[in-house]
């Protein structure tokens, strides 16, 4: 039984003391692939190095909307050059975030659009950050078409979910669905088309209900998947097979690693 963690910040400082053990534990639990997205130019090289170090890790490159205040326009040129090498499997984590007070919507929008253009240029999927910004993100995607991707940590409406799916996106679900009070997320997880769903941890963040105060590790993914399977009334093996196939479909460069595993 294989799982794919489609979104884990394995480069984060929280993993510095035991990263090797974290990756090994995940692998032994059946997590065959971990996708590690960048958040800014300062960690482009770090996520690429993790890709090289661990056979079960693949990286994406992008500038996170909450990091655009420390980014420069020249970072887009650097991203362009790195994507041209063909090693990143996606452009991400990119998008918009209208949750935190004081956000600069115009600056976020510029960096998002420029990165969508790069995804279009290199025919790469994108890993989307969409907190409180689903409609604004959808508007940009309709303007700058890309080869699909993943709407990470999806928590929008059913109408918004359907709009992302029509544009070729899968929707990412993780630890949040394990909380009984997360009614909308659990309803989406149970009722959206199975072929639209992928699994993620967003480690070290968004810990599941069974480890609410700890670091969220990719080893938690099978237990998160088990709750999703329960919500959908499916055997865990069927859920694992479907979500792994979905991840490979939307992130085609994962396929070879999954076959090898």
What does this molecule look like?
- The structure is a single chain.
- This protein has one domain: TIM Barrel (Alpha-Beta Barrel), CATH 3.20.20.140.
- The protein contains ten helices and eight strands.
- It has helices at residues 19-28, 44-53, 74-83, 105-121, 134-143, 158-166, 183-191, 221-232, 236-250, 255-260, and strands at 3-5, 31-37, 57-60, 91-95, 126-129, 149-151, 169-173, 197-199.
- Strands 4-5-6-7-8 form a five-stranded parallel β-sheet.
- Strand 4, helix 4 and strand 5 form a beta-alpha-beta unit.
- The longest helix is centred in the middle third of the chain and has 17 residues, at 105-121.
Task: Give a brief description.
It is built from ten helices and eight strands. The protein has 261 residues and is an alpha/beta fold.
Write the layout of secondary structure elements.
Blueprint: E1 3-5, H1 19-28, E2 31-37, H2 44-53, E3 57-60, H3 74-83, E4 91-95, H4 105-121, E5 126-129, H5 134-143, E6 149-151, H6 158-166, E7 169-173, H7 183-191, E8 197-199, H8 221-232, H9 236-250, H10 255-260
Parallel strand pairs: 1-2, 2-3, 4-5, 5-6, 6-7, 7-8
Helix pairs in contact: 3-4, 7-8, 8-9
